[in-house]
Specification:
With about 180 residues, this protein is an alpha/beta fold. The chain contains 6 helices and 5 strands, in the order E-H-E-E-H-E-H-E-H-H-H. The longest helix is centred in the last third of the chain and has 21 residues.
């Protein structure tokens, strides 16, 4: 299934899932052992980026039975219905209009190195430039489904400096791209 449009980029974490300590292990686990078909467009660990699905394809990554008010306002009722819905795999969800990036933890218990944050920020800035997205188009999984449902990426919601550093790097790379054009 193809994406209907590109409205935003959603950041995720690996949540300590079985990955044998590397991106390839996580990709293998998601492709072969996850029953719900969830997947991502890109996987980031340190300076490495591994491509998952094409950004033209829909990934199952941020559907939920309910959505935050902010998500419903940003994505609209077509993608975030304001009612509790139970269809699987969330046919009317932000999955239809978002690019999914999974960041692998660098530290025990969560958290990302400066290198992982910079790599993700650079990747996001390139995708934002290509798809003509604004800063308001950067979301975390939690911002869409709410903290009571999931903290993802946890470090962005529990370690404020991680989110601030990421946003600073994102602005830096966006400014570089604007100056170069």
């Amino acid at each position: 299934m193809k994406l209907k449009e590109h409205r935003a980029i959603v950041l995720h974490e690996d949540a300590g899932q079985p990955k044998n300590g590397n991106i390839e292990g996580l990709v293998h686990w998601m492709k072969n052992e996850r029953p719900d078909g969830a997947f991502y467009h890109r996987f980031v660990s340190g300076s490495r980026i591994v491509y998952g699905r094409s950004t033209a394809e829909r990934c199952i990554h941020c559907g939920n039975n309910t959505y935050t008010r902010e998500a419903t306002a940003f994505f609209g009722e077509e993608h975030c219905p304001p009612w509790d819905h139970r269809e699987r795999p969330h046919l009317s969800s932000p999955n239809n209009c978002t690019i999914a990036i999974c960041m692998l933890h660098d530290f025990e218990g969560g958290g990302f190195s400066g290198e992982t944050l910079r790599t993700t920020a650079r990747l996001c800035s390139e995708l934002m430039h290509f798809y003509d997205l604004s800063l308001e188009a950067i979301w975390t999984h939690t911002m869409i489904v709410g903290q009571e449902t999931k903290l993802c990426p946890r470090a962005f919601h529990t370690l404020q400096y991680q989110w601030e550093y990421f946003q600073d790097m994102l602005n830096h790379f966006l400014n570089e791209m604007e100056a170069a054009s």
